[in-house]
Design goal:
alpha/beta; eight-stranded mixed β-sheet; 20% strand
Length: 300
């Protein structure tokens, strides 16, 4: 697996939009081999009395509730997400258009797609998805986030159609909701049980649908940049926003998604240029990265 990871990080033959299938395959093969070996190990049985909110951490909810008013302040605590948003959207638009055979150059390339934005916060991803033509549902467990999202989206007739709900992915599964594409960007590092969370995301995805997750790699470089620099030196984020031990490596995320029934097909990194103040897609997945996966049509 280490060799596969090094192959991903060191190879330079990549388009800015995706890691090509033949380059990503070694990591997938390594993940499958590890998964098969691990399948013989007894797995802990889930608590049958667990709450639908089991993937949530109370202190994480309180942390984001405290800064909810700042969601649309591009110079506030969510400045990194505002700066990263165009690059995240470019990856999502490209991947979804390829998978669903949509025209990426049309005015509304995502028209006809039902998308859920899990952990939507103030709606900074939900709104541009709606402007691209998608029918969007945004969910967040923090009620204050949803109120901010509803107020801001209501200012534009195009985004006022977004369905914002104070709920969780687990609750949506209980309700039998299904979507063509499921988004969970910068969320999985804040949940209590990533594996159970991904099972919920998979359950929300229709067969042959898409799941997109972005997060931060559990690497020393990520610790230095996403925590030390962003929280303590640059003060882009409140201290304590991230816990390094809660980050997932790309290999771990691939395994978790595979076990949930999602096959990762594309992955790319986000790299920040301090000179231009902009993010760009890259093959460097050592810090921020995004993964695009699909659910088999034979799953259900």
């Amino acid at each position: 697996m280490a060799m596969a990871a090094n192959h991903l990080r060191n190879s330079t033959r990549i388009s800015v939009h995706r890691i090509l299938h033949h380059r990503f395959q070694p990591l997938l093969n390594a993940a499958r081999s590890f998964s098969e070996a691990a399948s013989s190990i007894p797995q802990p049985q889930p608590n049958q009395q667990s709450s639908p909110l089991s993937s949530l951490k109370d202190y994480e909810l309180a942390k984001f509730a405290a800064i909810a008013d700042s969601w649309w302040d591009s110079e506030g605590p969510f400045k990194p997400l505002h700066l990263m948003n165009p690059t995240r959207l470019a990856f999502i638009r490209s991947a979804l258009c390829r998978h669903f055979k949509k025209d990426p150059y049309s005015a509304k390339p995502l028209e006809g797609l039902k998308i859920v934005d899990v952990g939507c916060g103030g709606g900074i991803l939900s709104e541009p998805l709606a402007r691209l033509g998608a029918t969007v549902t945004g969910v967040d467990a923090v009620e204050k986030n949803i109120k901010i999202a509803q107020l801001h989206a209501g200012l534009d007739p195009v985004t006022s159609t977004i369905e914002f709900c104070c709920t969780t992915a687990e609750k949506l599964v209980e309700e039998g909701r299904k979507f063509d594409a499921v988004m969970a960007l910068e969320v999985i590092e804040h949940v209590a049980n990533p594996a159970e969370f991904c099972k919920s995301l998979a359950a929300l995805t229709v067969p042959d649908g898409a799941t997109v997750i972005s997060t931060i790699n559990r690497s020393m470089r990520a610790y230095a940049t996403a925590i030390v620099a962003a929280e303590y030196i640059l003060r882009w984020l409140p201290r304590g926003t991230h816990q390094w031990s809660s980050f997932l490596t790309p290999e771990e995320l691939v395994l978790i998604l595979q076990r949930a029934g999602i096959n990762v097909e594309e992955m790319a990194g986000f790299v920040y240029n301090p000179v231009t103040g902009r993010w760009s897609l890259s093959d460097d997945i050592s810090v921020n990265f995004i993964a695009f996966g699909t659910k088999s049509s034979k799953t259900e």
